[in-house]
Every structure is written in C-alpha cells, then in structure tokens.
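Example 3.2
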Amino acid sequence: MLAVYAVVFGVIFGAHAPGETPTDYVLQLFLGISLFQLLAETMVVAPTVIVGSPNLVKKVVFPLELLPLSQLGATWFHFLISLCLLLVGIVIFGHGLTVRGLLWLPPILAPLLLLSIGLCWICAALGVFFRDLAQAMPFLTQVVFYSSAVLYRTAIITPRLWAVLKWNPFLRTVNLARSALLWNAPVNLNQLGYTYVFGLAVFFLGRLIFLKLQPAFADVI
C-alpha cells in the first residue's frame, strides 16, 4: 500500500513538496500512514468490544472501561513496530535522526494517546446501542485519512478548505511528528498545545459518556 500511495500521489499527482526527493516523500508518507493506522484500528475495533464480551458484561464483576483499553494496547504495539521500521529507514535513507527529534516524539504522541482512549470509550459505549456504528467506522476512518494531510502537504490546501481542516487535531499531530523526526524543524508549541487541549477534552468526554451509559450495557446486550 505504501508503494501504491507513493506512486499515485507522489508521482502521478505530484503531492510531494518542490525539491523533496522521492525517498523523503516515502518516509513522511510512511509516518503519516502509521499514525493513521493507529487511530483507524482504534475506531474500527472499539464499537464491537463491549458487544463482543457479553459474559464479562453480565456475569463477571469487571471494570468494563478496561476492555476498550486492552484493544488500544494492541494497536499501539503494532504502531511501535512500524515506528521502529521508520526510524531505521530514516537512518539509512533519510537525513538521519537527532536526539532532539526523538525527545520530542513522546510529547507529540501523548495527545494522540489521550484522543485514542477517549474515542475508544465513546465508540465502545455507543456501539452497544447503535450496532450499525461498526459498519460506519470504515467510512469515517477514510474521511479522517483524506482530511489529515497524510498523502499530501498542507501547503496545497486551498484557503477555504484550510479554514476547516486546520481544526483537525490529527492533522496537527501528523505535521508535528514529521517536523520533529524527518525535517529536524522546531516544534510549533501552539499547535502542540492545541492537540493537548483537544486530546484531554475527548478523553474526559469519552470517560463521562462511558460511565453514563455503562449501567445499561447488560440490559441492552
């Protein structure tokens, strides 16, 4: 899939930046796709987590909020494998890694973890009452994919469209991670702060929704 995206968007549509080598584009594409897969797996799996464990809901005294988080742990494990491959690729084919870039990576990923946990709780809780949510998730993840500058640079986005897309926190996370790891550029603290505010808001909202709906899980299932 990386090769397909690189050829279609990098070569045919010319989505790479002027002066950017094909290798640079592939590395930033790989980073964006890896981050997207992290979020997409969470959104796709979460709606079926509670529904798929009726015995734990009805017959066992179990902190149900941990069920979605167990799935989240698996997705982050997959992401760490991809991240290791990316770091090797940067060392071999890219401009090299810097200590500064590596140190910035955990603070950049932390808001994404908060966002993922919040979304996981929201989707898991709503999935109990709206079973079709699981079928809608693949479409929603594609909306996130194409609206988050995973395949293209933000410079080509028209001003009218950017007025909407700039509020996408995942787009900000992708750009921040690329700046730190691939371009060795200063991290925009305003953008980083925005991702923290949004991530914390979704985290607490997800927690609230899950705890509010949890008492009705056993009756619905």
